[in-house]
Amino acid sequence: MPLALRLRDARTLYTQVMDQVRAALAAGSLTRGERLPPVRRLA
Questions:
Q1: Cβ–Cβ under 8 Å, residues 24 and 36
Q2: Among candidates 33, 32, 29, which has minimal Cα distance to 2?
Q3: Other Cβ atoms closer than 10 A to 19
Q4: Measured between alpha carbons, how far is residue 28 from residues 18, 20, 23, 37, 39 in Å?
Q5: How does DSSP classify residue 9?
Q6: Dmax (CA) of the chain
Q7: pTM for the whole thing?
Q8: Three-state SS for 32?
Q9: pLDDT tens readout for residues 9-42
């Protein structure tokens, strides 16, 4: 699950991640119970 985080966004990074996870769930590209990538991979 690729994330597009913007450092100059008014929202915090964790809020951006949360919003993108919610959007992926709503779009069906991320299914309920599916594991997210490890933190080190997202870094």
A1: no
A2: 29
A3: 11
A4: 15, 12, 9, 17, 22
A5: S
A6: 31
A7: 0.74
A8: coil
A9: 999 999 999 999 999 999 999 998 898 888 888 7
